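Need residues for this backbone.
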């Protein structure tokens, strides 16, 4: 007799969970998608999703082929004195781009995000929930934290696009440490310096 209900884990279960997650993220967006809904779509027990993936951010990273899961790596990056936060973030982020393996994945991620309205919406939800929220939580003034985190992230993304995607000659010519110095000063200013009130 044909088996009904939730399937047990098998050799292809992980792939089927990823496929179900990809469809759920595309249909519902990152924020509205739950691990329980992904398990339901894949016809598996929710415990199996947790068995293969540490959380929703890890599953999204797999779906989008991101080089890392922010929930895993960002706590250590953010665990520095506040006046060193800009340098820590900049060194970490640009280091991803400098690596031959993760740099190629970062380029692919940006191209996907820029080339598709659907992918942009998914990435926006992920970046807001899993990256910017972590930046913001580290800042002492929560009234401006979300704005500061977004400004800092914009600076980092722009720095990466200029050096690694557009490959502007003046930026490529800089030694990595020089580039980290230049970019991190602006990132730090966004995080802890004066910030204009919204209009």
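Answer:
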């Amino acid at each position: 007799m044909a088996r009904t209900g939730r399937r047990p884990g098998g050799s292809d279960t992980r792939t089927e969970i990823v496929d179900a997650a990809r469809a759920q993220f595309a249909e519902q967006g990152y924020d509205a998608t739950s691990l329980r809904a992904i398990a339901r779509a894949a016809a598996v027990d929710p415990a199996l999703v947790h068995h293969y993936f540490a959380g929703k951010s890890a599953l999204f990273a797999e779906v989008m082929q991101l080089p890392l899961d922010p929930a895993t790596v960002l706590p250590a990056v953010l665990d520095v004195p506040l006046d060193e936060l800009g340098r820590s973030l900049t060194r970490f982020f640009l280091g991803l781009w400098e690596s031959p393996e993760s740099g190629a994945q970062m380029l692919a991620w940006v191209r996907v995000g820029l080339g598709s309205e659907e992918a942009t919406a998914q990435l926006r939800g992920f970046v807001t929930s899993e990256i910017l929220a972590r930046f913001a939580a580290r800042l002492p003034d929560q009234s401006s934290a979300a704005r500061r985190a977004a400004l800092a992230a914009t600076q980092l993304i722009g720095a990466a696009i200029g050096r690694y995607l557009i490959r502007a000659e003046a930026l490529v010519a800089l030694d990595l440490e020089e580039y980290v110095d230049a970019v991190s000063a602006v990132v730090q200013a966004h995080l802890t310096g004066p910030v204009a009130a919204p209009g």
